[in-house]
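Progress report, Aim 2. The chain analyzed during this reporting quarter is listed below.
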Amino acid sequence: KDPDLFALFDGIVISSDCGYVKPDPAIYRHLLNTYNLDPHDTFFIDDVIQNVQAARDAGMTAAQCTLCDIDSIKSAFHAWQNA
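Predicted structure tokens for the chain:
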């Protein structure tokens, strides 16, 4: 719905495409390995707090987006980028 938001990211992992289900730590390792990411340089968005916490446990910065407030997510992402 918001191509400007997704243009900020290097990639997206969809559980049904990779065979792992959140919050299984394997999906976060898959994300990091697929895009050769350092978890400390990775920003993760999800609507379920357990998935957000699992991403944080994997070393990522993560934000919960329950109402898909794109402007809030963009602000959080830009604040993280500039930190």
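The longest strand covers residues 43-46. The beta strands are 43-46, 61-64. These observations will guide the mutagenesis work planned for the next reporting period.
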